[in-house]
Design brief:
By secondary structure, the protein is an alpha/beta fold. Helices cover about 45% and strands about 15% of the residues.
């Protein structure tokens, strides 16, 4: 990145932060973003980075090892056979989308003596392109999830389907918050569900108004990514 590009990125980050409550965590989605751009974002105040692929994240963590206060978030679909690497690499895993995966992560976390922060990915509207629990399926699994003592299951993650109107987006995000409130009201021992990971570049403002505590921004910070080969 040249000096003017770095300056523009810093200005974008500052402008977005100025619109956010202090309680909202801004996660820079850095998949397919070069480490030079990530360093520039770090210099502009970003400390949370979200990655979707284990191998890419591992390489970037090696190259950015000198940035000791970075917090790494796994935000992409996670296969159970990559659970161990995910627990080793990430402080946060947002994309836990089924009971089998949660239980696998719980066993791995016990073996590694490391308790990652977990968000349960939910799917409130039908969407063939998204993973996650339906509300009904999640209710059925809550007792089993409460037994995952080696995970800090502290939030829900939701991705809105494409094509929703602003009114529909508001309803979608609000319903996610209502679901979190209902889970908390059951007083499960290990399911505090305080965090709401929802909102991306095109809808984060609506998500924040609806109660999001963590937003995942990529394109609005780093620009369009190159097409995947």
């Amino acid at each position: 990145m040249n000096v003017s590009e770095i300056s523009r990125m810093a200005d974008r980050i500052a402008a977005i932060r100025a619109t956010l409550p202090p309680s909202v965590r801004l996660i820079a989605v850095s998949k397919q973003v070069p480490v030079e751009a990530m360093r520039a974002a770090y210099e502009a105040g970003i400390r949370d980075f979200g990655e979707s692929r284990i191998q890419e994240a591992a390489q970037k963590q090696t190259e950015l090892a000198d940035l000791s206060d970075v917090v790494w978030h796994m935000i992409g679909h996670l296969q159970a056979n990559k659970a161990q690497k995910a627990v080793q690499l990430f402080q946060w895993i947002h994309s836990v989308d089924e009971l089998k995966l949660a239980q696998r992560l719980d066993r791995v976390a016990a073996d590694l003596s490391h308790k990652p922060n977990i968000c349960l990915q939910v799917k409130l509207l039908p969407d063939p392109h998204k993973f996650g629990w339906t509300p009904e399926a999640l209710w059925n699994d809550l007792t089993s999830l409460d037994q995952c003592h080696h995970l800090n299951i502290c939030g829900l993650m939701a991705i809105a389907p494409l094509g929703l109107t602003p009114t529909e987006l508001t309803s979608f995000f609000q319903e996610t918050g209502v679901l979190a409130d209902k889970i908390r009201s059951q007083n499960y021992q290990n399911l505090p569900i305080r965090e709401l990971s929802m909102g991306m570049s095109g809808d984060y403002a609506i998500a924040v108004d609806a109660g999001s505590t963590m937003i995942r921004l990529g394109r609005i910070l780093f620009g369009d990514r190159p097409p995947v080969a």
